[in-house]
Amino acid sequence: MHLRIGPDLCIIMGDISQQIIAKEMNSLMNEKPLSIEERRDGLARMARDGVDVLVIGGGITGAGVALDAAARGYRVGLVEKADFASGTSSKSTKLVHGGIRYLSQFDFALTRESLVERGLLLRNAPFLVQPIGFLLPLYAGAKKPMGTPIRLPFGFGMGYILRAGLILYDMLAGRLGLQPHRRLSKTKLSRMAPCLKTDKLEDAFIYFDGQTDDTRLVMTVLRTAVDQGASIANYAEVTGFEMAGGQIDAVHIADRLGGEGYSIRARKVVNAAGASAGTIEEMAGVSSIRIKPAKGVHLTVARESLKMGKYAMVLPETDDGRLLFLVPWGPRVTIGTTDTEGGDINDATAGPADIEYLLRHVNRYMRCRLEESDIISAWAGYRPLISSRKSSAQSSKLSRTHAVLDGPGGMVSIVGGKLTTYRRMAQDTVDHLVRGWGKKPPKHSITANLALEGTADRELATADLESRSVEYGLEADVIRRLSLYGTELFAILDIMATDAAMRRRIVPDLPYVMAEVVYACRREMVANLDDVLERRVHISFEDRDRGTTVAPAVAEVMAVELGWDAAEVVRQVERYRRRTASDARWSTALSGGKEPERVQIL
Question: C-alpha distances in angstroms, 46 versus 122, 249, 264?
Fold first, then answer.
């Protein structure tokens, strides 16, 4: 049920809690929360009033810091030079996991920390994170399966070693654990993964971790931070710092959309710029950060190419000692990831060697042979790994732990880490800030028990969605997709209710609908076509032609919301097509040169 405001105010209580009613009332009175207009107002507000904490970086790390600080009662601002989650945070394998391979590196502390954070995220955002089973085969002759440094003569007893590791993995999760691992027979494994090779198979197991939509997670954390009082702005680039007594007094910001310049006074600046953290420090002085960026490449293929069901799969051994994952994602499978040193962190691209590496290892273990023509997309991101200045270690051997460092001008930098541990990274960062403020009594983090926006009464939103599904013609995959919005579903359903065209799929074989485009314009600060097609929905990576066919239709919908004229629509479409041109060969090979059916907006 919904709260409707008309000539007569009618409140139908039903099972709706007072909290949901209050949120809906606020939504109806504030027509464009987190819109482009709010972005502009937020920048002006930060410049006028100043902040206690200014966070630089709008990925998952920066979003987490903004939430933690705002939840403690501090005045918080966050700026991001491009779109939110436009870097590493939207290029992950979309897993919330303990990092089972860290056990083989004897990094029990990181594994434990990751497993605890996995459990907290499952509890605090159950609509966004779901358990998923991982099939783990063990083959005869494997030299270092799962990267284990232990090697018994002739490979004898490796199954026992692997099982001991899985038992430890379950134990380290403690009361926040998921289902315990199980041993699988060859027959059962073949039924669960019909394409997996079983020649020389010695043992097999299934264990459980979590899966999430990385961009939706970032946006949900940001929305929660705003609900706690933070101001945020994308396309707001740091151009310099104003110093007073050797300390940063203000941060200069260039508005990349409006063209204005702002100066934001801040008591403390948090550098959460990921792989660009060193560049931010250099603006204020001499950087002490040693980041060794590692490029991670993923492939997207159709699920039928590998005949995968609901379970993910671990390829237990690669030439460089990494693990590879095959993870079902809607009608697609994500394959990854590589670990390649160096490259341009501002232009992460998948090269021929990266693609060959992934295909070679998949074909080593799978009977369903993959060819380049099976690739829908190849995409990459950079992980900001911590390294000492004297380190010569390969990036695949560097720790995924995080570090909070004091930088020039009193800046605090948070570097390293992984998607799963973002909350703990943020807590440690703000704890460091609070201690640095001296005599002021510390305010403790509350985020371990803070449900993310969209969690409260999400069952009501899901029930509303399911009740309308027949009327709106929504199939099961679309319902599953929309459920990732939690109680923000109410806003999407309102969009669908007012315009039947918004209920249509954007691409025929993907679960995204046009209402998500309108929602992103009104409530998630999108400014460009790629903000929608690459991040708010993942059409750029999952569509056979990278979304270039449907780009004009999506741009027309955005034009209505954002006030674009015809020339801007053309510019946005051409800009988007240029961005995807480098990967066009994958989709052309797969589709045989045929364009998929176009979606028309009536």
Answer: 33, 14, 6
Do residues 304 and 70 lie in contact, with contact meaning Cβ atoms separated by under 8 Å? no
Q: Judging by beta carbons within 10 Å of its beta carbon (0-12, 13-18, 19+), is residue 16 exposed, middle or buried? A: middle
How many CA atoms within 13 Å lie on the side-chain side of 393? 15
- Interhelix angle for 108-124 vs 422-436, to 10°? 100
Contact 235, 82 (CB under 8 A): yes
Give the span between the Cα atoms of 488 and 198, in whole angstroms: 45
Token duo for residue 286: 């001499």
- Residues contacting residue 100 through CB under 8 Å, at least 6 positions apart: 111, 146, 165, 166, 169, 207, 209, 314, 323
The rounded distance, in Å, linking the Cα atoms of 586 and 540 is: 12
pLDDT in tens, 359-384: 999 999 999 999 999 999 999 998 87
Higher pLDDT, residue 35 or 342: 35
* DSSP structure class, residue 366: B
Q: Round to whole Å and give the CA distance between 574 and 529.
A: 10
pLDDT, greater one: 438 or 61: 61
The residue among 484, 478, 528 whose CA lies nearest residue 504 is 478
- Shortest CA distance to 59 belongs to which of 212, 274, 237? 274
Amino acid at 378: A
Q: How confident is the model at residue 392 (pLDDT cuts 50, 70, 90)?
A: very low
d(CA 284, CA 215): 30
Structure tokens at 21: 């009613």
Judge whether 196 and 366 are in contact, CB under 8 Å. yes
Contact at 8 Å (CB) between 511 and 478? yes
CB atoms within 10 A of CB 123: 14
Q: What is the DSSP annotation of 174-203? A: GGG--SPPEE--HHHHHHH-TTB--TTEEE
Distance between CA atoms of 465 and 473, rounded to whole angstroms?
11
Q: Which residues contact 162 (CB under 8 A, 6 or more apart)?
A: 136, 138, 145, 146, 148, 203, 205
d(CA 222, CA 58): 8
